[in-house]
Request: fold
Amino acid sequence: MADLSIDFAGIKSPNPFWLASAPPTNSGAQIHKAFEAGWGGAVWKTIGAPVLNVSNRYGAWHYNGHKMLAINNVELISDRPLEVNLREMAEVKRAWPDRAVIASAMVESKPEAWRDIVRRIEDTGADGIELNYGCPHGMSERGMGSAVGQVPEYCEQITRWVMEAASIPVIVKLTPNVTDIVPPARAAARAGANAVSLINTINSIIGVDLDSLEIIPNIGGKGGHGGYAGPAVKPIALNMLSAVARDPEIREAGLPISGMGGIETWRDAAEFLLLGAGSLQVCTSVMHYGFRIIEDLVEGLSSWMDDKGFATIADVVGRSVHRISDFKDFDLSFRAVARIDPEKCIRCDLCYIACNDTAHQCIDLVDGEGRKVAPGSYGPRANGKEAATADRPLPVVREADCVGCRLCYNVCPIDGCITMAEVPSGRPPVTWAELTAARPEVGSDWEAMKRYRQENGIDIH
Amino acid sequence: MSRLPEAAVTRRGRLNYGKRSVKEENRQTGGLGEVLPPLSAHEARVEAYRCLYCYDAPCTHACPTHIDVPGFIKKIATGNLRGSARTIMEANILGATCARVCPVEELCEGACVLNAEGRPIMIGRLQRHATDHLFERGIRLFRPGRPTGRRVAVVGAGPAGLACAAELGRLGHAVTLFEKRPLPGGLSTYGIIVLREPVEVALAEAEMIAELGVDIRTDTELGRDVTLEALREEYDAVFLGIGLGGSPDLGIPGEELVEDGLAWIERSKFEPEKMTVGDEVYVIGAGNTAIDAATIARRLGAERVTILYRRSEREMPAYRHEYAFARKEGIDFRFLTQPVRILATDGRITGIECVRMRLGKADASGRAAPEPVSGSEFTLPADQVIKAIGQKKPELLADLGLATEKGYVRVDEAYRTSIEKVYAGGDCIRAVGAASTVMAVQDGKLAARAIDADLGLATAAAAE
Ligand SMILES: Cc1cc2nc3c(=O)[nH]c(=O)nc-3n(C[C@H](O)[C@H](O)[C@H](O)COP(=O)(O)OP(=O)(O)OC[C@H]3O[C@@H](n4cnc5c(N)ncnc54)[C@H](O)[C@@H]3O)c2cc1C
Ligand SMILES: Cc1cc2nc3c(=O)[nH]c(=O)nc-3n(C[C@H](O)[C@H](O)[C@H](O)COP(=O)(O)O)c2cc1C
Ligand code: SF4
Ligand code: SF4
Ligand code: SF4
Reply:
């Protein structure tokens, strides 16, 4: 069986799954319960500056009956008294020596304030500190949270203050509310942080109530942007994770990354690991289903690792990062075409309409005799299940015209029915970078492009 | 329009069929309410999400009125129930009835691509969800068209006549609808058991159609109160949607003691409290009507209900899903059994004399013809016998001078009969294929469009 334990910047835990700093880690009692369920670690709900919270602080994005594809919140940091949090932190750490207990902190941007909070956290025996530079609402209005995370200079400065005071590992938690996540990550590295974590929540407005015309959630007649998290943000998180993971400066600094944003299943977890996360944090899906989801997270990840022959988490971390590339380095001669398996096809014709309305018009409906037929070609008096199913035409891809865009593959409701088959293009591999280095005019002049296409038999209608 | 008779209103009141415990029990477990409960808003949404929104969807193809099924289901998913009902009723004005009575297993649901995984979408129940939304709120989606000055007479307020009248009204023609019975709706009102469709649904639809400017004259019979000649003279076109006739005779001794299945069902819709049901009930015939009649007997508390059919299980005309339903209702079947005489004492049935049958060569219908096994007569004790062997061919056709085909009204592609300006649709033209409500609706709708086109032609010709 695979060994799931990790040593993340010196913080050890029996598995890579930590509860993210959020409502699930609001109190010692909750974290006790989570550790009993099997969580490897917990990042305490952010402590620091005094705050007051409001009601109706969570909104959610539901899709086609699936509840909470994402949550959005205007919750601030912990509103419990600081001493209570610190006392419970010490109790939890004492009771659970093998689990990772990490304090998340956010105070005013003053060196004394940071030095003071670091000292008090270290007194609890916590394994590490996470600096919350991410909270995108409320705290940022007071010059904290994402107001720090969005400005690399602030990020670096505050991290330096902390590093001077801290003796335990320090993780800098980054905000995704930036155009490029790399500069703040580099700032943390320059300041000597031991690790970064990402992503915090994304600015969002979840919706408008069509009855009352109020913003959702309605906070006494008002509403505003809140932090967005949960399964819907996973692709954004993966992109940011890989951007940091493949950045040369970060690699050189050897900075581990704690990944989060939309992890709900062990599959999500494995993807985060493959793209460079050395530990994993989870919030929204725990808020949806409770601590019990840890069982499948651990078991599923472990079996997948066994199946793949990965003995340790370290074997998995970053495995797929080298495949992330830029468009200019893709092989322009790579060609794939859609193929439909007539045995599996249930003839919903979703691929047909997708290709014909919005792709390259290269799926035909073909009847039993191989004739192309128009959709809806039955008379007003045709009816009955026999008539509607027996002669229902089959969607067939005209491979010569298929550009392999993969839209049909994505809309098909049947697993394995459409495959994107790699076919030889008959052209030598060439990237855009190579092509435009050799023939710069191809990238600036349509006539030159036309000649290039003709030479290479590329026909796009 | 006539009001609903008192009996129909009170038919949900307490029923009283004697004191025996079995009947009591049946009444409590079964009863004459709709078998399928309405979907809750949540159930409907969840089911709607499951629909794939197929393109050129097979369910739409299979629907005789070609309702845009994915279109209306998508609208349920988005919460646009009014729009959903519009999509349904643009194609099928009697969408609320059809949602309940259609043999969906043979039509839309039978064609759903999700049969591949054995769980087709509940199209009928979703359709009911959308149309009920409309009727429960009294929302009207359609208006009469701009008046054309043309007048059309429609005879028969069954599904065919109502659909035709509605379409003509929406096209702006002035329609008078003649119906011989006191209530409109045809078999939806008088023939389809309450377990499937309450009378109120059919009547609400008729009321909606009346509001499209259709003048519904009930208790008015063609051939008695009006003549075809008079209608042809007074109106620009005439549509006949007169359905089929009553129950045919069994032609066996003691027939006068046998309950007529159609009348039996009709009474179960309007005055079930006045019906008496036996303990040992036999229903003759094995079509859908027989199953309906047997179901009613069972639900009214008969100890045992048995369907007698002269052919075998395979030849049974009832839909498979109806057969399965009957089995679940606890109805017994005796196949290859032909009643030859009703036995009675003092005018009360005591038994049925039957003869065993065996299957011979295929007959005109392509099914094996049953023939009696000589000397195989036997007697079944019985105290009630119901005949449900279908309906007679449409009546009146010879009197009206209409050309026929196999006893049904002969029409061309545009529903024109052999008499000029006279059109027909519904069961009365159904020489081939299974007669059903939705087929009648499609006939009525298409015939109205054909009439409209012919009237247009006439206008153009007159202008020349
Ligand atoms: C017991 C039973 C159960 C059924 N169950 C189902 C079912 O579950 N699902 C389904 O799809 N189909 C069912 N059907 C079939 C369905 O009811 C018919 O196919 C449908 O009603 C045909 O419509 P129609 O308008 O052609 O005829 P009808 O519904 O028969 O309507 C004809 C109308 O014309 C009137 N009329 C007749 N002669 C005259 C005249 N001379 N003057 C004025 N008016 C006249 C009649 O009174 C009647 O109102 C059932 C039929 C029966 C008998
Ligand atoms: C209601 C709520 C409150 C949160 N509070 C904090 C917080 O106090 N400190 C913090 O660093 N992150 C906070 N977060 C962000 C989470 O720790 C995490 O970064 C984010 O939710 C992404 O992970 P997820 O998709 O698993 O939820 C909060 C998130 C939510 C939904
Ligand atoms: S891959 Fe794109 S172009 Fe090819 S058949 Fe599918 S949708 Fe059409
Ligand atoms: S989307 Fe898939 S299942 Fe549907 S018709 Fe196309 S290939 Fe068949
Ligand atoms: S066939 Fe089934 S899944 Fe497809 S549109 Fe019709 S009801 Fe929906």
User: Anything to note?
Assistant: Residues 294-308 of chain A form the longest helix (15 residues).
